[in-house]
Amino acid sequence: MAIRPILLHPDPRLKTVARPVQAVDDATRRLAQDMLETMYDAPGIGLAAPQVGVLLRLFVMDCAKGDEPPDPLVLVNPEILWTSPERVPYEEGCLSVPDHYAEVIRPAAVELRWTDLDGGVRQARFDGLRAVCVQHEIDHLDGRLFLDHLSPIKRGMITRKMVKLKRDRARDRAEPARA
Ligand code: GNR
Ligand code: NI
């Protein structure tokens, strides 16, 4: 198992539509395990493969609260079968856009079909935080960030700060602070 680096916005790989997983094999299972380890380490409630630079349609999530047992879930090639007419706001964040949060309005519940790590087809309805999370992750698979749901003004402000953060981090790696 390994923690993989998480790509930061802006990055062209985070704007790319990911390709379906052709077959669930050992490489898929290793990738999913690495993604779960990376998500728990961050920590986050979800992580999509494009966020670790793998442009495949696969994400991991665990929306269990602190006092609940872990509830890891891996969804391969997820498809939205149904979305509720009810829409709800939620203050979203993203591991690829650290320290920025904004309200996004999405369907309150969704029905998904996906493939699990044994290659079986699964189907379930998600609501509450889990509905927010799966829609946020499927957006990643389609090359979208929560920023794409905001006004161009807000998106531009956050993107500008992220460009600066990435520049500062690149500079820190090039010339680490001396004592
Ligand atoms: O850890 C995460 N928290 C979160 C909070 C509100 C709405 C969505 C999320 S997903 C995010 C992890 C992440 O960036 N997944 O792609
Ligand atoms: Ni995200």
Give structural notes.
The structure is a single chain. The protein is of the alpha+beta class and about 180 residues long. The protein has three helices and seven strands, in the order αβββββββαα. A hairpin with a 5-residue loop joins β6 and β7. The longest helix has 23 residues. The protein is globular, with a radius of gyration of 17 Å. The model has no long low-confidence stretch (mean pLDDT about 95). Bound molecules: ligand GNR and nickel (II) ion. Ligand GNR binds next to β1 and α2.
Highest CATH level, the class: Alpha Beta
Radius of gyration: 17 Å
Order of helices and strands: HEEEEEEEHH
Shape: globular
By CATH, the architecture is named Alpha-Beta Complex
Here the CATH topology equals Peptide Deformylase
Question: How many beta-strand segments?
Answer: 7
Tell me roughly what share of residues is in helical segments: 25-40%
* Low-confidence segments: none
The helix/strand class is alpha+beta
How many separate domains make up the residues? 1
In this structure, how is the largest beta sheet organized? 5 strands, antiparallel
Strand content: 15-25%
> Can you say what the CATH homologous superfamily is?
Peptide deformylase
List the helices and strands and how they pair.
Blueprint: H1 26-41, E1 46-48, E2 58-61, E3 73-83, E4 87-92, E5 102-107, E6 109-115, E7 121-127, H2 128-141, H3 152-174
Antiparallel strand pairs: 1-2, 2-3, 3-6, 4-5, 6-7
Bound molecules: ligand GNR and nickel (II) ion.
